[in-house]
Amino acid sequence: MAAHTIISYALLAAYISAVGATDYTVGDSNGWTISLNYMAWSTKYNFTVGDALLFNYVKGQHNVYDVTQDTFRSCNATNGTLKIYNSGLDTVNLTTAKEYWFICNFRDHCTAGGMKFAINVSELAALPPGDVTSPPPPHLHPPPPPSAAVRQGINWSYCAILLVILWCVSFH
Ligand SMILES: [Cu+2]
């Protein structure tokens, strides 16, 4: 197989791993707690379908309500609650491209404690044109077997150096 084909696959694989699903811990190292600005936290990231939010808190001291926009605004979860999480370590899979609203429904944590935020989850981005060399037609070359680097978890920079050496040997 030509070296440039191998490089194409390596770039494609690297790109896929770069855009892969991400788990975001809400509040980062602070977790889900009062007196943090979660609206500000939520603007730090771009969330896409397949990502997940991890809510980390002491069970019984907080909870997580996935709510409608109206309930998010009012902090009144009498209705407009889509889902409730209260394990203390909750994973919320972002499965749909839409706006999500989350509050804590413990006492005044939503109204006064800052425990509310909204995120806009977008579809997975398409491959940008020109960013990755087109792979060859599938029937001309069989797909490469999983490389040793993938199976053994050797890091990508090591793999890239090997490919550059291979490329140099092939063309020079
Ligand atoms: Cu709370």
How does this model look, in words?
This protein is of the alpha/beta class and 172 residues long. The protein has 2 domains: 1-19 and 145-172, no CATH class; 23-122, Immunoglobulin-like, CATH 2.60.40.420. It is 28% helix and 21% strand. It is built from 5 helices and 8 strands, in the order αβαβββαββββαα. The chain has helices at 3-18, 38-42, 69-74, 148-152, 156-171, and strands at 23-25, 47-48, 52-56, 64-67, 81-85, 89-93, 99-103, 116-122. The protein has a 5-stranded mixed sheet. α1 runs antiparallel to α5 (156-171). The model is unreliable at 10-17 and 146-156 (pLDDT under 50). The structure holds copper (II) ion (CU). Residues 34, 62, 104, 106, 109, 113, 115 line the site of copper (II) ion.
What is the gist of this entry?
The protein is 28% helix and 21% strand. By secondary structure, the protein is of the alpha/beta class.
The Cα radius of gyration reads 22 Å
- What is the helix content? 25-40%
Q: How would you describe the shape? A: elongated
CATH fold naming of the largest domain: Immunoglobulin-like
Largest sheet, order of strands side by side? Answer: 2-8-7-4-5
Strand content: 15-25%
Largest sheet: 5 strands, mixed
**Low-confidence region ranges:** 10-17, 146-156
Mean pLDDT: 79
Specify the CATH architecture of the largest domain.
Sandwich
State the total count of DSSP E strands: 8
Work out the helix count.
Answer: 5
